[in-house]
Amino acid sequence: MFLFTVRFKLIAVGVILLLLFAGCGNGNSGQSGSLGSGQDLESVAKARGLTPADLVAAAKTYMPTGKYDEYLMFASGGHSGQLLVIGVPSMRLLKVVGVYTPEPWQGWGFSKDTKKVLAEGNPRGQELSWGDTHHPALSETGGNYDGEFVFINDKANARVAVIDLKDFETKQIVKNPLSYSDHGGTFVTPNTEYVIEGSQYAMPWSGQYASIEKYKEKYRGMVTLWKFDRKKGRIIPEQSFAMELPPYWQDLTDAGKLVSEGWIFINSFNTEMSTGGVEDGNPPFEAGASQRDMDYLHVINLKKAEAAYKAGKTKKINGFPVITLATTVKEKILHFVPEPKSPHGVDVTPDGNFLVISGKLDPHVTIFNFTKIKQAIENEKFAGKDDYGIPILGFDDVLEKQVELGLGPLHTQFDPNGFAYTSLFLESKVARWTLGGPWAEKHKKQPWALVDKVSIHYNVGHIAMAEGDNVEPDGKYLVSLNKWAIDRFSNVGPLLPQNFQLVDVSDPDGPMQLLYDMPIGIGEPHYAQIIKADKIKAWDVYPEVGWDPATQSKSKNAIQAGKEKIKRSGKKVEIWMSAVRSHYTPERVQVKRGDKVIWHITNIERAKDATHGFCIPHYNINLSIEPGETQTIEFVAKKAGVFPFYCTEFCSALHLEMAGYFLVKP
Ligand code: RUQ
Ligand code: CUA
């Protein structure tokens, strides 16, 4: 009803505008005119060179002050190692959540607890200061986003992070013990029992060396099933396990749902096992890894894998339980399906029965039928085996359909009207096409057919639709995550912004309409997920004064107003400080050079947004202490001197007075 009213209003607005501006020129290229002095729509539109279509697009995205977006998009922050939270359809950036990289405003990576979380991800003790975040995955219940947690991987170092959406803070980072490289993560099973992390570039197990000549014997892929404990809000490494995979380059992953729940699907490329070495006269990877017509979709029976793990049929590698390839074959856990030409995306349809595979070098999407896959596995109807003894199903036995969409298909999302949407990287377009099966019947559509395309600027990678990979997709909006912007924005030097483009896909019978460009000043964002905003039940302020976000419970270091203190014992000085508009108590802290300083600060405010900062010069400290929060910093006062500390949030009229002196006696 709401949608209908909105659409009706928009159509009405559109019609009025069309009538008003039928004579307007096309102002799409170059600079648009100045504001115009008039207050009425007509003169503003004229002055700015806006077309009627521009005005309709503006009306669909404009968010009056104080109004909220219907959806929130969680987008990878790319190399920044952070996670972006963006309102849809306004495309307003709401938050940058610190994940793999320190985020000074949030104090992420400065307090004792957040330093600890960052350090959990250090590979073999090596400190890292970036991440290549790729695929955010919202936690799911029954195959739909539930708004409780979001996970995201770091492809460069094979790490997985857990972010709690009660306070939008990262709670945990796990480093994969087997590999340095992941890409098939993060994806969750329909009730978030597991967070899936699949490798990308095959390598010897982390920390081991093997000559590249030994590629086939010593290099391996893997998939790790991280057990998630929703109550604790943590991955439990002790209840997690991995599977050894052949040294193909495993790519994207998706978890089965409904009829395919309990199964995992992983694409692969370089089943040629090309090892590069163009400098030695070998084919370069780009050619060597694209010779065969078919690569392998990995079809994993998660229930069987879990049973093998629980029965102890694993081998400890780097202290982590791994189901070996031999066990995988013996227990019939893994099967292959031939998939065409350097596949990239694998996406399970909302009903769980079809797998949409995009081959980067094939103009078709290939759709496999899960029921047929299951039958072929049950009947042991195989077309052969690979070098590692993994049974390969017959392509034609499990194929449902191939649909020709265009050049460079990559990723697919779904809407509630029976459409699938696939990004076409080489064409810079998004294709809308119909699914088959019960949907097509219900919606009286011709099944498996290309319907329409919309132009994108440019080189679209992933697309994200509102709840577009859920059991019950919302559709309506599609955001195209574009790699190149070329001429879309003012010149800011040779490194251009990357571009999120918002597309209205709400009308199943009309065209898709490009609405809005959102330049992203950090790259390279990969995937995003869009959730209905009212599913997020974040706290306004921390539940109690003295809250410790690391444990999501009251901190033993919380301090009440009037109870602030400084305790010295030997070379240790411990401070319990309160922060409230507009002072810290105490305001003077004196130590001796070489003292170990443990400093707890409690923000005793209960008012929404009454955050205080806390910085100490020289010592590289900046905290954000949100209403109710207790934070701890720990350091050795190595340098003598006088260090004015102050609040870094403009919290009140007397904010500048919210300061003090940290005195370190020589
Ligand atoms: S990816 S643009 Cu998810 Cu790294 Cu396909
Ligand atoms: Cu507290 Cu400024």
Runs with pLDDT <50, length 5+?
Answer: 1-29
* CATH topology heading of the largest domain: Methylamine Dehydrogenase, Chain H
Report the strand count.
Answer: 45
Distance N terminus to C terminus?
72 Å
Strand percentage, roughly? 35-45%
What is the overall pLDDT average?
A: 94
Looking at the overall shape, the CATH architecture of the largest domain is 7 Propeller
CATH-defined superfamily of the largest domain: YVTN repeat-like/Quinoprotein amine dehydrogenase
- State the shape: globular
Helix segment tally:
11
Output the CATH class name of the largest domain: Mainly Beta
Give a verbal description of the structure.
The chain is mainly beta. The protein has 3 domains: 2-61, no CATH class; 71-124 and 134-535, Methylamine Dehydrogenase, Chain H, CATH 2.130.10.10; 547-665, Sandwich (Immunoglobulin-like), CATH 2.60.40.420. The chain has 11 helices and 45 strands. Strands 8, 9, 10, 11, 12, 16 and 17 form a 7-stranded mixed β-sheet that branches. Strands 36, 37, 38, 40 and 43 form a 5-stranded mixed β-sheet that branches. A 4-stranded antiparallel β-sheet has the order 3-2-1-33, with no helix packed on it. It is globular and about 75 Å long. Mean pLDDT is 94; it is low at 1-29. Dinuclear copper ion is lined by residues 582, 612, 647, 649-651, 655, 658.
Quick take:
The protein has 666 residues and is mainly β. The protein is built from 11 helices and 45 strands.
